[in-house]
Amino acid sequence: MMDGGHAEAGELDGVALPGRRARLLSRRSFLAGSAVGLGALGLGGCATSDGLLLAEAAKLYGPLPDEKFPIPAVDVSKVDPKYYRRTVRYASKEAPGTIIVDPGQYYVYRIEGDGTATRYGANVGRQGFLWSGDAYVGRKSEWATWTPPKEMIRRQPETAKYARGMPGGLDNPLGARTLHLYQNGAYTLYTIYASSDAESIGSGITSGCVGLLSQDMIHLYARTPVKTKVVVLPA
């Protein structure tokens, strides 16, 4: 996923750390909750006031105090409203449950059938680190340990303190949930992971991996079994 780097349970090598967007960890500078409220707006195309939209988003992206590491609310004012989770019309021949990543538009879709999909805003790979093709979810991780690859430690000696692994937690680059993508039985090193950096949504900052807001990632993760097909579109 990231330029050939390896990290345990997620191989993250540069995902934006929570609250530290200006200090990305190198190459991968890497809910339960219902979409009904925003979904209705998305499907109906209804015009609504910014205040109402923010109020709905605040509910959708509120705190998750019952997580192993309680997750704070997202500052939704830092996210472009077009990236809020919602149900949208989306024509696709893919089976319900399939995940489609559209890096060019900074969206991840979960096909729901009947011409609709759940759409999530995302951060994606920066220029030179984009990839496309079919894959599948080979494994799933909750609050995974992150281990920087040797190449990263050589470039950034300060990461050596995590050579034996950085335990899961709010500051862990992999976040609360991770979907690990495989092709033909082999791990691609690419993931869809949870990000706490609201300002990263709608931008290209990683070395190929795809990040969703933690609340969105938990929502997608709970509905995605191992072996789920993932289609990554060309940027």
CA(first)-CA(last) distance: 16 Å
H/E element sequence: HHEEEEEEHEEEEHE
Radius of gyration, CA atoms, in whole angstroms: 17 Å
| CATH-assigned homologous superfamily | L,D-transpeptidase catalytic domain-like
- Estimate the global geometry from the Cα principal axes: globular
User: What is the typical, i.e. mean, pLDDT?
Assistant: 80
Derived structural class: alpha/beta
Q: How many domain units?
A: 1
Task: Enter the CATH topology name.
Answer: L,D-transpeptidase catalytic domain-like
Poorly predicted runs: 1-48
**What does the main sheet amount to?**
9 strands, mixed
Question: What do these coordinates show?
Answer:
By secondary structure, the protein is of the alpha/beta class. It has a single domain (21-232), classed as L,D-transpeptidase catalytic domain-like. The chain is built from four helices and eleven strands. The chain has helices at residues 36-44, 50-60, 150-155, 214-222; strands at residues 86-89, 99-102, 107-113, 116-121, 124-125, 133-142, 177-183, 186-195, 204-206, 210-213, 229-232. A nine-stranded mixed sheet has the order 1-4-3-2-11-6-7-8-10. Strands 5-9 form a two-stranded parallel sheet. The two termini are 16 Å apart. 49% of the residues are buried. Mean pLDDT is 80; it is low at 1-48.
